[in-house]
Amino acid sequence: MENDLLLLQVGVTGGMGRWHGGCLQEPAAGASCSVAGWGVSRAGRPSPRLQQLQVVVMDARMCNNSRFWDGGIASTMICFQGFPWDSWSKGDSGGPLVCGRRAAVAGVISFTGQDATDPFKPPVATSVVKHRKWIRRTLRSSCPGHIGHTDQPIPLT
Protein backbone atom coordinates (compact mmCIF):
# COMPACT_ATOMS: atom_id res chain seq x y z
CA MET A 1 0.00 0.00 0.00
CA GLU A 2 2.93 2.30 -0.76
CA ASN A 3 2.19 5.88 -1.90
CA ASP A 4 -1.33 5.77 -0.47
CA LEU A 5 -2.08 9.45 -0.97
CA LEU A 6 -4.80 11.50 -2.65
CA LEU A 7 -5.20 15.25 -2.95
CA LEU A 8 -8.71 16.64 -3.01
CA GLN A 9 -9.36 20.12 -4.35
CA VAL A 10 -12.16 21.86 -2.47
CA GLY A 11 -13.71 25.02 -3.84
CA VAL A 12 -13.78 28.15 -1.69
CA THR A 13 -17.59 27.96 -1.77
CA GLY A 14 -17.31 24.81 0.36
CA GLY A 15 -17.19 26.99 3.48
CA MET A 16 -13.71 25.85 4.48
CA GLY A 17 -11.93 29.00 3.37
CA ARG A 18 -8.56 29.12 1.68
CA TRP A 19 -5.63 26.93 2.69
CA HIS A 20 -2.53 29.01 3.27
CA GLY A 21 -0.02 26.22 3.52
CA GLY A 22 1.14 24.44 6.59
CA CYS A 23 4.09 22.85 8.20
CA LEU A 24 5.19 19.41 7.07
CA GLN A 25 7.42 17.56 9.48
CA GLU A 26 8.94 14.07 9.41
CA PRO A 27 8.67 12.78 12.99
CA ALA A 28 11.50 10.93 14.69
CA ALA A 29 10.98 7.58 16.42
CA GLY A 30 9.45 8.21 19.83
CA ALA A 31 7.76 11.45 18.75
CA SER A 32 4.39 12.16 20.33
CA CYS A 33 1.68 12.71 17.73
CA SER A 34 -2.08 12.51 17.38
CA VAL A 35 -4.47 11.01 14.86
CA ALA A 36 -8.12 11.83 14.26
CA GLY A 37 -11.03 10.20 12.52
CA TRP A 38 -14.63 9.02 12.55
CA GLY A 39 -13.73 5.34 12.65
CA VAL A 40 -15.95 2.53 13.85
CA SER A 41 -17.03 3.02 17.47
CA ARG A 42 -17.36 0.31 20.13
CA ALA A 43 -21.00 0.01 19.01
CA GLY A 44 -19.79 -1.14 15.57
CA ARG A 45 -20.91 2.01 13.73
CA PRO A 46 -19.01 5.08 12.54
CA SER A 47 -18.48 7.48 15.43
CA PRO A 48 -20.93 10.41 15.44
CA ARG A 49 -18.10 12.71 16.57
CA LEU A 50 -14.52 13.20 15.55
CA GLN A 51 -12.23 11.09 17.74
CA GLN A 52 -8.61 11.92 18.58
CA LEU A 53 -5.93 9.57 19.88
CA GLN A 54 -2.43 10.30 21.14
CA VAL A 55 0.15 8.04 19.47
CA VAL A 56 3.91 7.49 19.44
CA VAL A 57 5.98 7.05 16.26
CA MET A 58 7.80 3.72 16.09
CA ASP A 59 11.34 3.17 14.88
CA ALA A 60 11.16 2.10 11.20
CA ARG A 61 13.58 -0.81 11.72
CA MET A 62 11.49 -2.10 14.62
CA CYS A 63 8.29 -1.81 12.60
CA ASN A 64 9.90 -3.74 9.74
CA ASN A 65 11.26 -6.61 11.83
CA SER A 66 9.80 -10.12 11.69
CA ARG A 67 7.61 -9.61 14.79
CA PHE A 68 5.81 -6.68 13.19
CA TRP A 69 5.39 -5.97 9.44
CA ASP A 70 8.31 -8.22 8.38
CA GLY A 71 9.85 -5.94 5.74
CA GLY A 72 6.55 -4.61 4.38
CA ILE A 73 7.11 -1.01 5.43
CA ALA A 74 8.69 1.30 2.82
CA SER A 75 10.73 4.41 3.55
CA THR A 76 7.65 6.50 2.64
CA MET A 77 5.66 5.01 5.53
CA ILE A 78 5.43 5.86 9.25
CA CYS A 79 4.42 3.26 11.87
CA PHE A 80 2.84 4.45 15.09
CA GLN A 81 1.23 3.01 18.21
CA GLY A 82 -1.66 4.33 20.25
CA PHE A 83 -2.69 3.49 23.75
CA PRO A 84 -4.96 1.84 24.73
CA TRP A 85 -4.74 -0.64 21.87
CA ASP A 86 -8.52 -0.83 21.41
CA SER A 87 -8.77 2.93 20.77
CA TRP A 88 -7.59 2.58 17.18
CA SER A 89 -10.48 2.10 14.73
CA LYS A 90 -11.08 0.75 11.28
CA GLY A 91 -12.37 3.56 9.10
CA ASP A 92 -9.84 6.17 10.24
CA SER A 93 -7.85 5.89 7.00
CA GLY A 94 -7.30 9.24 5.33
CA GLY A 95 -7.12 11.08 8.64
CA PRO A 96 -4.10 13.16 9.64
CA LEU A 97 -1.04 12.14 11.64
CA VAL A 98 -0.07 15.41 13.34
CA CYS A 99 3.14 15.81 15.33
CA GLY A 100 5.04 18.43 17.28
CA ARG A 101 4.23 21.49 19.34
CA ARG A 102 3.29 23.46 16.20
CA ALA A 103 0.91 20.71 15.01
CA ALA A 104 2.80 19.85 11.83
CA VAL A 105 1.26 17.37 9.40
CA ALA A 106 3.49 14.29 9.25
CA GLY A 107 1.33 11.77 7.44
CA VAL A 108 -2.02 10.46 6.28
CA ILE A 109 -3.38 7.33 7.97
CA SER A 110 -3.14 4.45 5.51
CA PHE A 111 -3.69 0.97 6.98
CA THR A 112 -3.42 -1.34 9.96
CA GLY A 113 -3.51 -5.09 10.53
CA GLN A 114 -6.63 -7.23 10.22
CA ASP A 115 -7.20 -6.86 13.98
CA ALA A 116 -6.85 -3.18 14.85
CA THR A 117 -6.00 -4.10 18.45
CA ASP A 118 -2.99 -6.29 17.53
CA PRO A 119 0.12 -4.55 18.94
CA PHE A 120 2.30 -6.47 16.44
CA LYS A 121 0.54 -4.95 13.41
CA PRO A 122 0.62 -1.25 14.28
CA PRO A 123 -1.16 1.35 12.13
CA VAL A 124 0.80 2.87 9.25
CA ALA A 125 0.64 6.35 7.73
CA THR A 126 1.94 7.62 4.41
CA SER A 127 4.60 10.28 4.96
CA VAL A 128 3.60 13.62 3.46
CA VAL A 129 7.16 14.93 3.78
CA LYS A 130 8.47 12.18 1.50
CA HIS A 131 5.83 13.23 -1.07
CA ARG A 132 6.34 17.01 -0.74
CA LYS A 133 7.56 17.49 -4.34
CA TRP A 134 4.66 15.48 -5.76
CA ILE A 135 2.18 17.46 -3.63
CA ARG A 136 3.58 20.81 -4.79
CA ARG A 137 3.73 19.72 -8.44
CA THR A 138 0.16 18.39 -8.30
CA LEU A 139 -1.22 21.49 -6.62
CA ARG A 140 0.46 23.75 -9.21
CA SER A 141 -0.86 21.72 -12.13
CA SER A 142 -4.39 21.07 -10.88
CA CYS A 143 -5.89 24.56 -11.09
CA PRO A 144 -8.26 24.94 -14.07
CA GLY A 145 -6.85 27.28 -16.70
CA HIS A 146 -3.25 26.59 -15.71
CA ILE A 147 -0.89 24.79 -18.05
CA GLY A 148 -0.74 21.15 -17.06
CA HIS A 149 -4.29 20.97 -15.67
CA THR A 150 -5.86 17.56 -16.07
CA ASP A 151 -9.11 15.96 -14.97
CA GLN A 152 -7.35 12.59 -14.93
CA PRO A 153 -5.67 11.10 -11.85
CA ILE A 154 -1.97 11.88 -11.67
CA PRO A 155 0.15 8.78 -10.91
CA LEU A 156 2.76 9.02 -8.16
CA THR A 157 5.53 7.42 -10.22
- Summarize model confidence as the mean pLDDT: 78
Question: What is the distance, rounded to the nearest whole angstrom, between the alpha carbons of the first and last residues?
Answer: 14 Å
Strand order of the largest sheet: 1-2-3-6-5-4
CATH architecture descriptor name = Beta Barrel
Q: What would CATH call the class?
A: Mainly Beta
Number of domains: 1
Task: Please provide the ordered H/E string of secondary-structure elements.
Answer: EEHEEEEH
Quick one: CATH superfamily?
A: Trypsin-like serine proteases
Q: Please summarize the sheet with the most strands.
A: 6 strands, antiparallel, barrel
Protein name: Granzyme M-like
Domain Peptidase S1: 1-140
Organism: Nothoprocta perdicaria (Chilean tinamou)
GO molecular function, one term: serine-type endopeptidase activity
